Amino acid sequence: MTETDADANPLMTGRSEELFPQACTLVIFGGAGDLSKRKLIPALYNLALDGLLPTQFAVIGFAIDELSDEAFRDFARDGIERFSRRQLDEEEWQDFAEHLFYQQGDFGEAAAYAALKARAAEIEPRFGIAGSRLYYLAIPPSFIDTCVFGLRDSGLVAPADQDLPFTRLVVEKPIGRDLESARGVNRSLQACFAEHQLYRIDHYLGKETVQNILAMRFGNSIFEPLWNSKHIDHVQITVAEAEGVGTRAGYFETAGVLRDMVQNHILQLLSLVAMEPPWSMRADVIRDRRLDLLQCLRPMLSHEVDRQVVRAQYASGFFRGKDAPGYRREERVAADSTTETFVALRLFIDNWRWAGVPIYIRTGKAMPKRVSEVAVQFKAVPHMLFNTDTDHPLEPNVLALRIQPDEGLSLRIGTKLPGPKVKIYPVKMDFRYGSTFGDQSPEAYERLLLDVMAGDATLFMRDDAVEASWHWIQPILDAWAASGERWLPEYPAGSWGPIEADRLIDADGHAWRRL
Amino acid sequence: MNHSVEHYIDPVEIERELAAIWASISRHQKDGGTVTRASMSNVMMFCDGEEQALDAAERIPRLVQHHPARVLVLALIDEHSTDEVRAWVTSHSRQTGDGQQVCAEHIELRFGAGGAERAASIVRSLLISDLPAALWWLSPRPPALTGPVFDAFAPMANQIIYDSIGWADPPRGVLAMTQWSKNNRTVIFNLAWRRLKPWRRILSQSLSPTIVPGALQRIDSIELHHGPHALPLAWLLLGWLASRLDWKPQKGLATSGKQLIWQFTSPNGPIRIAVHRRDEGPPRIDRMRIAWRSGDGQPASHADYQHEGHHIRHFPGDTTLRPSSIPTVDQRLEQMVAAQLAHRAGDALFTASIAFSEAMAKVVKSANAPTASQ
């Protein structure tokens, strides 16, 4: 809720703990698609269960498929039954379903937008919605231009300086597939919407534990004094997926893990871990700090790409005792594909805080388990008093922020083993969200949808940050394109990656964490 | 969730007994698994009588599932004529990935009216340091009207959580709690406030100026119907509305044991509020009608609200608007308490509302408010 509106409604003031989702219509482009069914509708339903949706709220699924309102509700119900974190409650469903509508239309035809406009205008007064709309583009990137210009040309975008009714646009990643195309997407978006109306979503940032990074860093006084090159030896970020490409092979073949994971999720994660303290929690302040960090990444020179970046592809192997096919044997993958399914890289942040601290990133598919974490390894004590024998060296302190699964954080510290001799043994102090708080964390999409309805852009990507991350990635893409490699290093499916990745980190005297 | 066996012990043995429980759980771990303790708070649960203490004990596993804590059940047993304090301990744990996690060390103390000070001294020694302490007042008596027993435990708490549902004399209870709050820095919280959340939400949204322009400023009457024991709930909701809308209570009249009438003034004119109690049904606000006069080119109109099943439904007087609803998200008492334990700072809105409730109580008292069960 904007301050203007809160001020106008005295019953809304003073509610500091809550987000204020505003009355609006959510139009889902691609409403009959996979993202809508698996994520968006279940997220909306869970928000409704918690009483967090505004009462003046409607959803219009908008897509080319011929569906009636009733058929769309059946589609939504199926999505909730299969993918919601909580079971469908019949009474709540009946209420929720009354807010769901469907409008068929071809995104490329002006008539479809006119029909959408008429449909929204018919539905909204019934719910007391004053014309505020939130358009969610749950569509392939190739349709973005068509849709945003279609919206603008049909008069479906509210003036940028108008508080109410508002228009907001949510765009899914990827924003482009390289720097130039990302700029092109941003140009199209900004030709039709003002930047403050745009919400570029990266669902990773909606995860509770990702947000906890800020809470942990800036809500405690003990970490921040140590959060610099004087005390930190290196940082490892791992985002491992247990599955191969599966049903996403078609998309993945054109993307690769560098575009799919590093350019967005991992660099956004890194920006939260490494950014300077914000002076306020206001969206633009946080986003400025994240941008600053991305701009401090040491540029990857083309002749250094081979030395700093390892890419690889999974070959056949075993996953939990079962045969797992190699990437080139997956359906819809070219037999001579050079799309990388694994990347390990070393980067540096050229600023005062992080000078000389290597950041190691590894991410891949078909790995032994699904795990995402950021591990901060502190420097060894300056003078060894304990465990001076080389067989049992003193292990450094590690603070691990686990994103998934078992969300939480752990701190490895050395403690004396009981007994007459002074021997230090590493123990782990472990905090797990699930076991401490018991409650189920909301899905990332729940939080992010609520934020868009409330007009809070903190967890969304701004144009400059998107372009900054592509700017850093681009030399790697260029170097790979120029290399003309026909074979990539391989790693067996179900392993932690190729030997080349081990060599990359080993060269600095470090090792990947065992996860 | 597991828990260990209970047996009476000498209060001085409590810590030793807790250590023995820990050791016992550790011994039963396989393959070197570890036992950890998750604790976010110390929670003292004050109960009136054995029956309520048993009820409290049943709530603990669900409480600590959401908010791990060291829990002390403090049961005042009238028939205990001496100042003897009886105690036992137990624990509640659950299996985590690689070990057992103790989510609650559960300590029970039984004492008579003369033993409150003695029991308090035991509690003082058992509170885990560096963790907040909350006093959850399960007794149906308003805490501040309980005298020495409340005085014995309240100073140890950072937060006092009570529930005004069922108070026999709501005006007296409201006055006592607001007075106590003024003289103490301890945060107080009435669970009724949390129950009102869906009501506050639907009123905020349905009366938004973007939906019905100017309606909030032109309200001229409210009629509210509630079930038995729910007058404090209605009182708090009206206190919130009045404080938000800058109304001033003029007089309150209990026309019968079942009806209360208030007169308020606002910058835009007088407001009449009628509160009716039903003889039967759940302790909740059942329905409400808010009406507003015409003005600023807008017609007079109203909105009806009704608690039906698990929803509060809104029926606008303007039939071009569609009815809306909001789920009530029924929560067990212990879930509400767990949620409140995580909010240790005072809620400014709640504080403003109870301060207003006090002003409302004062005008009602001057008109001989009822003292029968509400």
Can you walk me through this structure?
The complex is a heterodimer of chains A (515) and B (374). Chain A has 515 residues and is an alpha/beta fold. Chain A has 2 domains: 23-165, NAD(P)-binding Rossmann-like Domain (Rossmann fold); 206-381 and 438-443 and 462-506, Dihydrodipicolinate Reductase, domain 2, CATH 3.30.360. In chain A, 36% of the residues lie in helices and 20% in strands. Chain A contains 15 helices and 17 strands. In chain A, the strands form 3 sheets. A 9-stranded mixed β-sheet of chain A has the order 16-15-14-13-7-12-11-8-17, sandwiched between helices. Chain A is globular and about 80 Å long. Chain A starts with a helix and ends in a 9-residue tail after the last helix. Chain B contains 10 helices and 18 strands. Chain B folds into 2 domains: 2-157, no CATH class; 193-366, Dihydrodipicolinate Reductase, domain 2 (2-Layer Sandwich), CATH 3.30.360. In chain B, strands 1, 2, 3, 4, 5, 6, 7, 8, 9 and 10 form a 10-stranded mixed β-sheet that branches. Chain B has an 8-stranded mixed β-sheet with strand order 12-13-14-11-15-16-17-18. Chain B: It comes from Thiorhodococcus mannitoliphagus.
Helix content of chain B: 25-40%
- Determine the oligomeric state from the structure: heterodimer
CATH superfamily of the largest domain in chain A: Dihydrodipicolinate Reductase, domain 2
Structural class of chain B: alpha/beta
Shape of chain B: elongated
Count of domains of chain B: 2
Main interface by residue count: A-B, 36 and 50 residues
In this structure, how is the largest beta sheet of chain A organized? 9 strands, mixed
Report how far the terminal alpha carbons of chain B are from each other.
39 Å
CATH topology of the largest domain in chain B: Dihydrodipicolinate Reductase, domain 2
**What is the first-to-last residue Cα distance of chain A?**
42 Å
CATH class of the largest domain in chain A: Alpha Beta
Strand segment count of chain B: 18
